[in-house]
Design brief:
Elements lengths: L5 H8 L6 E5 L2 E5 L29 E6 L10 H16 L4 E5 L11 H16 L4 E7 L2 E3 L4 H10 L10 H4 L3 E2 L2 E2 L15 E2 L4 E3 L5 H17 L4 E5 L13 H11 L9 H4 L15 H25 L4 E2 L1 E2 L14 H4 L6 E4 L14 H12 L6 E7 L2 H14 L2 E6 L14 H15 L7 E3 L3 E4 L2 H5 L10 H14 L4 E4 L1 H4 L2 H5 L5 E4 L6 H12 L4 E4 L16 H8 L4 E4 L7 H7 L7 E5 L4 E8 L2 E8 L2 E10 L5 E8 L5 E7 L8 E4 L8 E3 L1 E5 L2 E7 L6 E6 L2
Length: about 725
Amino acid sequence: MKHTNDRRDFIKKISLTGLGLALTNGFTKTYAGTTGNTLVDRRATIVGLPQNPSVPFVPQRAASWWVTIEDLQWSQKKIVDKIKRRAAAFAEAEIDLAINYGCHIRFDFSNYFGQLHGYMANVCDELHKYNIKFMDHYSCNHVERPRGEEEFKKLHRGQRHHVLLFHDPKAAAFAQYEGHLFNDICEVDIRDGSRGYARQYQMETFCHNNPGFLDMHARYLERLFKEVPIDGIEVDDMCDYSGLTTCGCKYCRDRFKKDYGHEIPAFGEKSFWGDVKKPMLQWGNYENPAFRDWLRMKTDVIVDHVKMVKRIAGDKPLMSCCSSTGPIVLNGISLDLEKMAPYLDFFMLENVGTNVKSVDWTHMDAEALNQKDIADKRGNAPAMALSYTIYEKGGYFGWALSRFWGVANWSSTHNQRLEEDPADAMEMEDVIRPSNLWEVKHSPMKAREGKDLVEVRVVNNKLCKDNGWRDDEGQEHWTHAKTWSKKLLENNIGYRFVRYEELADAAALKKDQTPLVLDGVGCVSDAQFNAIKSYLAAGGKAWLALPFGTHDGKGFKRTVPLSDELRSTKYKNLVFIDSITRSDVLSKLIAQGNLKPVIRQIAGDKGWVARIRIYKNKPVIHLMNTALTGIPHPSIKDNSGISILADISSKIENNKLQYEIHTERIKLTDLKVSSPELAENQRNVAVFKSKKGYSTFNVDLNGIKVYAELINAV
């Protein structure tokens, strides 16, 4: 669910049809399908899915296609004409994928699916004339049900972008689709038996494990694909925003007993629920294996739901939303992108918001590269970053981050995310047009074709998150991995993540000779340990910071930590180090010669960071500013009271930089500085040999605040 920084802030603080009619361009299409309301457990029909997706198209410059409540009046001439104008404007802005944004809580619109599908079919027809793809995007497992006047007002202040057309409380008791009453398929709150409620979004939540809900969603998907020629689909919110106390329905209780052998205990039983006086995302006794199994079961049912969606979508690319993959608090809302990954085709990071804080971006580098690795392991699946903005400078900033990360860009205005739209609000295509046009003319590199220069591999082991593992100082494994990300970024050192599956694959580990960082990897499975030992025995390099292997892959404490065996074996290239969270161990490793960075800045302010990526055997150096300052709008604030980003400034004073590059790793000819901020202009950069094995070059970034790239001059 696209909520700028809401989801991330929330995580930090406490997340088959019958006869269907589709009106398309004034004509009526009738589709015959199966009838009846027989409940079908669709999980039984799921078959194996390929691990390497063959996607029919690869987006590069995506943008949100905003839908408003007025658009449900389709097919009035005014709306049809607006579709035509916008499609032409999207084409002029070089947008290649339009993603639906609006009518988001989809089953709130069950009475209007004919109009909505007719509208979207009309949109597809117009976009396809320009070879622009269209992806639908909606939340399947919620209905908006504000409880009380204050919740009603809060919903209208903060979620206008959903297109708010939810049921009156009296009508809600009878709301249904395909014979399934919404009240009957909601999650059950274990505390009091009430319907599951996501208070942060004023929504009641459907149970991913309820066969009635799965049947209803499957029937809707089949109707959607018949009535609208969409090119792909993003089914959002594949998680559980009601949190840890849902779901206590019959189906979830039966599954927990069948799959894991446990009963759900009464709420408040401390041995299971932990201290429930804390915020919900801090609940749970991770020492209890039954609680850990509860978390596993909750994500199991969501993954089964994703499998069902993919089975129906077939060769249409499927995506889901994710703003975070690393921290333990994700367990509280059952959000696990890595577990869903085998059934997804595109991968998206919900990135920055609309306010001035968004320019502080370095903490997102770890999430971006972690999700990029998830996509890479799905056969180099397309990855993109979604960035929000109100004005053009924010659109450019989001575009620049996508370029720096080497992923496709999804640009989205978010005017309706504010309580009231600004008088000077910009159209989506106008926000992103300048960046897109510059890209197409001056630097048409395809994100999927670029390969990051990797000098260090950082382990981020999902098993630590799944089991709620923390070290003796209370730090989780993701904190260690994220700190490595920040330090490597600041030192211009290329890195990637090694996740849990690769860590158990000895052959995969041996393919790469770069050092493997094992910092605070408390939970290690037997398969992972065997792969690590095989890698080390073959001469592989590793830097290990304790604790390591204190628990197994299921979270059970080991009698003797696995680090003891590694220490006693005395592998040649295994170096025991302090944790990056406790000392500047990276500087020590460089000083000791354990790491020789490929590129090193030797003059100028250190606010710029460099990332080297190889495109068709040619290196490109991407430069991004980490010392940005957001210039606030003089009057407009977001719903949390923070000023909207109006412009961007830089705290860097000396933009004349000098770099030294290791020519045994990267060979450079003379370069050119290129940036949208220089428009049509480029600056020449001479590369000269400074000492054996190294070259030096000077870069003048004056007049550039956000992003630049160094490309071959010939």
